[in-house]
Amino acid sequence: MNYNATEKGYYGEFGGAYIPEMLYPNVEELRQNYLKVMVEPDFKKEFDQLLKDYVGRPSPLYFAKRLSEKYNTKVYLKREDLNHTGAHKVNNTIGQILMAKRLKKTRIIAETGAGQHGVATATVCALMGMKCVVYMGEIDIARQAPNVARMKMLGAEVRPALSGSRTLKDATNEAIRDWINNPVDTHYIIGSAIGPHPYPDMVTRFQSIISEEIKWQLKEKEGRENPDYVVACIGGGSNAAGTYYHFLHEPEVGIIAVEAAGKGVNSGESAATSALGKEGVIHGCKTLLMQTNDGQITEPYSISAGLDYPGVGPLHAHLYTSGRGEFYSATDDEAMNSGLELTQLEGIIPAIETSHALAIFKHKTFKPDDVVVISLSGRGDKDLDNYIKYFNL
Ligand SMILES: Cc1ncc(COP(=O)(O)O)c(C=O)c1O
């Protein structure tokens, strides 16, 4: 089975580019150019250099001794939380800002949920001297205040999305509306492995540095390139896509995805997209989507702003329906407790999104000699207030 995007951007039956006519020239320009640009030696050189000197890559692969002892297995953490700006998101924004420059764009727009993608976008815009507008749901603006302040300080304009659940989906709607109105000078930096083709594939390729590094780092530490499992949380699915990429066609590597169950998969307040979703189209791609019987999008819920999205990237929809990936969903409570557990066992405060991946130990028992690599997608500074309130610290 093939788990990479086809030329038209399909992963099995999912993907494609379902876009309004007004967006066609933009998306088509990107589709025709992205693969060519990504292999240009100048582009690669600039991308690699910035990842090294600006982002601080390679990010460490850390053997978590106390966590391993607790769960009687070998746990490695891929430390994307140590990247400049505090999450994996910056790998993609560096790639896309360089792409935008090659395409002669002068204005950048983005959507954000947790604010990490917004901060990563505002950061690269400051770096390149580009104008930046970030759309963010009104609810997320309130629950991720430190990131809103960072974006403003970096010179970005943060525009609130006031419709629907006032979270990530609604911010994405606003960003698409902006792009339709500004088709010539603007590049839309989508922050996850979602959207019309070529976005899911382009974002996945920029994030694939994560699994590229895991391979040689694990070889150094364990004498083999392939772990038994790779684990990641899934919002739209970019940290997961990057973590899985070089293992997708290695059948001995188990691929594990953890989605946000919110207050419980069947509580009516959930973002467990694969478990609850049916095939549908959202933000330009065909994927698994939470919807009513007549096809209206169901409002998602998760304590984590970055996982609070009713759809999932088309690669992940394919991994789910083909059975290549094992999918779990973690409740708010399981995630928060797993975040506190990591903090107190390893001295690492994870983002609440990442805490969902760590909740895998509440759902699956690994063997003592299994090597389990978990994507530590982001750091928890932005979530301190939420942790403190939740645990009454
Ligand atoms: C730290 C962190 N992890 C994970 C995610 C989820 O996004 P994705 O599924 O694209 O990795 C986000 C989104 O904001 C995030 O900030």
Task: List strands and helices in order, with pairings.
Elements: E1 10-11, E2 14-15, H1 24-39, H2 41-55, E3 61-63, H3 65-71, E4 74-79, H4 89-102, E5 107-112, H5 116-128, E6 131-137, H6 138-143, H7 145-153, E7 157-161, H8 168-181, E8 186-188, H9 199-207, H10 209-222, E9 229-233, H11 238-244, E10 254-262, H12 273-276, E11 278-282, E12 285-289, H13 314-322, E13 325-331, H14 332-346, H15 352-358, E14 371-376, H16 384-391
Parallel strand pairs: 4-14, 5-6, 5-8, 6-7, 9-10, 9-14, 10-13
Antiparallel strand pairs: 1-2, 3-4, 11-12
The structure holds pyridoxal-5'-phosphate.
Pyridoxal-5'-phosphate binds at residues 87, 113-114, 116-117, 192, 233-240, 306-307, 351, 353-354, 377-378.
Describe the protein's architecture and organization.
- The modification N6-(pyridoxal phosphate)lysine is found at residue 89.
- Pathway: Amino-acid biosynthesis; L-tryptophan biosynthesis; L-tryptophan from chorismate: step 5/5.
- With 393 residues, this protein is α/β, with parallel strands linked by helices.
- The chain has 2 domains: 21-50 and 89-203, Rossmann fold, CATH 3.40.50; 56-86 and 207-391, Rossmann fold.
- The protein is 42% helix and 18% strand.
- The chain is built from 16 helices and 14 strands.
- It has helices at residues 24-39, 41-55, 65-71, 89-102, 116-128, 138-143, 145-153, 168-181, 199-207, 209-222, 238-244, 273-276, 314-322, 332-346, 352-358, 384-391; strands spanning 10-11, 14-15, 61-63, 74-79, 107-112, 131-137, 157-161, 186-188, 229-233, 254-262, 278-282, 285-289, 325-331, 371-376.
- The chain has a 6-stranded mixed beta sheet, sandwiched between helices. Strands 7-6-5-8 form a 4-stranded parallel beta sheet, sandwiched between helices. Strands 1-2 form a two-stranded antiparallel ribbon.
- α9 packs across α11 (238-244).
- The chain is globular.
- The model has no long low-confidence stretch (mean pLDDT 97).
- The site of pyridoxal-5'-phosphate (PLP) has 21 residues, from α5, α11 and α15.
